[in-house]
């Protein structure tokens, strides 16, 4: 398999007038094309910082990042759909910024809108949509730029529990259907475990990789929601729980 | 609709009617007492004027059209000042947002100018710019512009940094943050500063007209008080009240249109 992303010995230290804080230390990681990876760890362990570094929003203090793709998509905790734009205009915001409002991109957006049940809301304002639909719209906004790698920064944490399970399933299946590689950061262990793939456990600050756990579920438990019922789920949970503690 | 709902609607309507009636009554009683007191000589109509004298003067000044000249001048000056304040205010706030260090350097000066009582500037402006409309407009702009810059700039800095992060994750630059987030998100605050500024511009124009004019409502007030034509002074004040209410109303309409 091809590695789409390689991190080697990445450190990150941030500075404030009160002092310096070592947020990440010696992170080395390879991610294969098509993988779905979850990163868990105690709060403040630098999970989000790691995503910002991968996305190129901030530079690591040390270490190298190799990304073999064209485009990284980033999904934030809150959907940040702009109330002064319609759903359609929100979704095409990235295309607008990058001057990619051409025929093929627009067609792609329209396809996704209809596939994922948002076509009716094209001209609605964000406030008219439910939390789950808003998160779906935010995902389509990210996918519109056709990223090879998706970074998900606790995208479900702003939702209530019930919606959260649904949206997690929803987003997971969309990402799988579009065949994207994804890195999910979360503090919810069962969410990370239900998604499958690999779970990376980070230590307390400074964040180091403590353990990488491979997860495999039988065919019939193929979505995060179903995986919660798989017999393996409990074992994986205990395994991860031991590492996080 | 259920009977309860009808009853509820009925009560609301009745309350509304009663409030409107009482509002009118307060004004009516005030004007009535004033007129009677002046008529019976309980107050000196020469100093305190009276509603009937004001109405007479109003009709007279409408007939010879002098009122419209004064009113027109004040309106024009106010609108020009207001537009200049908004234009300068928005542009300056954007520039300060773009050049962060510039805003840090200028901050103490802005705060100083913002809290300075601007009427203190008016005499200086007359000496510098002369006894004309330029002075009045500059005076009016100086009253409102510093507060506008400070308010807008503070607001720009408060815009959710996550929204800026979103733009950056979509590959946008600071220019995109400005055009796609900052300005659209600021429309409500721009309109609310407009509401404040239309009033402040009027204040500034009247201050200016007190000192450097031979036309305008401010001029009528100062002239009337000097020659003891209190009818003229109070009439001008009443017209000013109505004018400020109308101007505020126009901005309110604008707000309804833009913010839905």
Summarize the structure.
The complex is a heterodimer of chains A (245) and B (260). By secondary structure, chain A is an alpha/beta fold.
Question: How does this structure look, described?
Answer:
The complex is a heterodimer of chains A (245) and B (260). With 245 residues, chain A is an alpha/beta fold. Chain A folds into two domains: 3-69 and 148-244, Rossmann fold; 80-146, no CATH class. Helix content of chain A is 35%, strand content 27%. Chain A has helices spanning 47-54, 87-91, 93-97, 103-115, 131-143, 161-177, 189-195, 224-227, 231-244, and strands at residues 3-16, 19-32, 36-40, 62-67, 72-75, 149-153, 181-185, 197-202, 209-215. A six-stranded mixed sheet of chain A has the order 5-6-7-3-8-9, sandwiched between helices. Chain A has a three-stranded antiparallel sheet with strand order 2-1-4, with helices on one face. The mean pLDDT of chain A is 87. Chain B has 260 residues and is an all-alpha fold. Chain B folds into two domains: 3-43; 57-259, MetI-like fold (Orthogonal Bundle). In chain B, 87% of the residues lie in helices and 0% in strands. Chain A binds chain B through residues 55, 57, 73-74, 76-78, 80, 82, 84-85, 93-94, 96-98, 141-142, 145, and chain B through 160, 162-163, 165-172, 176, 180-181, 184-185, 187.
């Amino acid at each position: 398999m091809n590695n789409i992303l390689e991190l080697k010995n990445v450190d990150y230290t941030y500075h404030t007038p009160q002092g310096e804080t070592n947020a990440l230390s010696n992170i080395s990681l390879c991610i294969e094309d098509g993988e779905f990876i979850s990163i868990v760890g105690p709060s403040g362990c630098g999970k989000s910082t790691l995503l910002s570094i991968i996305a190129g929003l901030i530079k690591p203090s040390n270490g190298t990042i190799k990304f073999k793709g064209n485009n990284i998509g980033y999904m934030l905790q809150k959907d940040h759909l702009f109330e002064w734009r319609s759903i359609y205009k929100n979704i095409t915001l990235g295309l607008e910024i990058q001057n990619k409002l051409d025929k093929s991109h627009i067609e792609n957006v329209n396809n996704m809108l209809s596939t994922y049940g948002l076509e009716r809301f094209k001209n609605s304002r964000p406030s008219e949509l439910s939390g789950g639909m808003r998160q779906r719209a935010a995902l389509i906004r990210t996918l519109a730029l056709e990223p090879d790698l998706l970074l998900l920064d606790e995208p479900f944490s702003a939702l209530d529990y019930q919606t959260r399970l649904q949206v997690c399933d929803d987003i997971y299946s969309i990402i799988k259907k579009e065949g994207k590689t994804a890195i999910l950061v979360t503090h919810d262990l069962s969410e990370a475990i239900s998604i499958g793939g690999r779970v990376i456990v980070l230590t307390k600050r400074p964040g180091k990789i403590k353990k990488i756990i491979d997860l495999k579920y039988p065919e019939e438990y193929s979505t995060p929601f179903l995986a919660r019922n798989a017999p393996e789920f409990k074992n994986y949970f205990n395994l991860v729980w031991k590492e996080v503690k | 609709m259920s009977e309860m709902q009808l009853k509820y609607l009925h009560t609301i309507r009745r309350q509304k009617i009663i409030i409107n009636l009482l509002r009118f009554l307060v004004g009516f009683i005030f004007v009535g007492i004033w007129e009677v007191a002046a008529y019976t000589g309980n107050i000196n109509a020469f100093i305190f004027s009276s509603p009937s004298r004001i109405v007479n003067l109003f009709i007279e000044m409408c007939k010879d059209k002098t009122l419209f000249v004064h009113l027109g001048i004040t309106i024009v000056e106010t609108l020009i000042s207001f537009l200049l304040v908004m234009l300068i205010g928005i542009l300056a706030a954007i520039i300060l947002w773009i050049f962060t260090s510039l805003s840090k350097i200028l901050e103490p000066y802005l705060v100083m100018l913002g809290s300075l009582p601007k009427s203190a500037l008016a005499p200086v402006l007359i000496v510098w710019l002369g006894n004309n409309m330029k002075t009045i407009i500059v005076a009016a702009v100086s009253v409102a512009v510093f507060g506008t810059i400070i308010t807008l700039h503070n607001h720009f800095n408060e815009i959710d940094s996550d929204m800026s992060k979103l733009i950056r994750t979509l590959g946008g630059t600071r220019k995109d943050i400005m055009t796609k987030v900052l300005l659209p998100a600021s429309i409500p605050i721009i309109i609310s500063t407009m509401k404040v500024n239309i009033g402040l511009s009027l204040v500034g124009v009247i201050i200016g007209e007190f000192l450097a004019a031979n036309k305008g409502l401010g001029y009528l007030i100062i002239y009337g008080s000097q020659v003891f034509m209190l009818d003229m002074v109070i009439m001008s004040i009443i017209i000013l009240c109505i004018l400020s209410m109308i101007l505020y109303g126009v901005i309110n309409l604008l707000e309804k249109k833009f913010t839905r």
